[in-house]
């Protein structure tokens, strides 16, 4: 494909995601497929869930279309098959509920299916620092954790759309900077396009939610691209791009484990949820996350240009600030001269 064709695919993903989300919204309402508020929810009215069916389908169609008749076609199809299976499992979870053990097992099978395929297992993910078996095991565990943390973090209006758009753009820019295959640049841009089409409908107050059918496969796709960056020596950029999500979800998990809580149950302990509890609006929180994500994208590009240590230090600083801001409910607002 030439770059004009790449651009057509990305624009098509945006249009399908936007228009398709509007159409499925009516279907979900008419069939009463709704996310009802409970004590752990951050929304106050029953809201249709399941937009991920359209968003994931649009992105996967773009990925396969981009890769058609290229060396990347086989891996794109493998990823697409695994993501579709995960979407089906997650849709069942949305509708009926699924035992966490079966949910995790299904995700593990999808990850193992991709990692053990011949086109993936040729080169190590971590630069040969680990034996082959441990290299695959580490990649699989990290990928599985990312799938789940991405799902855990989808708890307020706009957050998943903004994070997906930022990560997609960051992956594309890092891939271009590192001179990776052009297909991976467009994979990232297709993620951004799909997320932006959905975000129109999901911005606060949200008219529709992704559902697990969206957040689980999206975490799967993004996790794969971050592993590809790592495999190609861009480990610092792969760590910097999702650092806020990684930090919020991991610190929250550790806190809950130390308190002896059931970590698979829904809760309101994430930093962004604490900010809601303190009175910040969904839009305020997500806009702060967006600005931090933009900085993280720039730092990831710096890391890809050889300034990994400085970029990592900057990323740790800005994410630490964001966690403090969210955890204290924007305390800086009460300081004279403090920002919003």
List keywords for this structure.
single chain; 340 residues; mainly alpha; two-stranded antiparallel ribbon; 13 helices; disordered C terminus
Give a written overview of the molecule.
It contains 13 helices and 2 strands; from the N terminus they run H-E-E-H-H-H-H-H-H-H-H-H-H-H-H. It has 340 residues and is mainly α. It has a domain at 3-236. A two-stranded antiparallel sheet has the order 1-2. The N and C termini lie far apart (45 Å).
Alpha plus pi helix count: 13
Q: Largest sheet at a glance?
A: 2 strands, antiparallel
Which runs of at least 5 residues are low in confidence (pLDDT < 50)?
332-340
Shape call: globular
Summarize the structure.
With 340 residues, the protein is mostly helical.
Topology (elements, then pairings):
Elements: H1 3-30, E1 34-35, E2 47-48, H2 52-67, H3 73-96, H4 100-115, H5 132-152, H6 159-177, H7 182-202, H8 212-231, H9 235-240, H10 243-258, H11 271-277, H12 282-304, H13 308-327
Antiparallel strand pairs: 1-2
Helix pairs in contact: 1-2, 1-7, 2-3, 2-7, 2-8, 3-4, 3-8, 4-5, 5-8, 5-10, 6-7, 6-8, 6-12, 10-13, 11-13, 12-13
